Amino acid sequence: MSNGQSITLENPNGGLSHLTSGPGILSASVAEEDREQTICTAQPGTHGTIEEQQVIDLLSYVKIKITDGECEGKTGWTSKTNIKPGA
Known about the structure:
Shape: globular
Strand order of the largest sheet: 6-5-4-1-7
């Protein structure tokens, strides 16, 4: 995967994909400080474009700009496992 590439969000565990304000932030918690880090929660099949990539503690993250759906126009980070190539 490379910057500028079109992707589709598809959580391998099923359900939604969380976009956060920074890489490595897990937003499954309902704690207030975690909710403040959440940019948007995207439906499976949502399309976007890779803007940046980063590895933290051996885990790969990507910064995505969403191009459709409820999160359209928003940009945030998610695990690389939540994306697949193509839009």
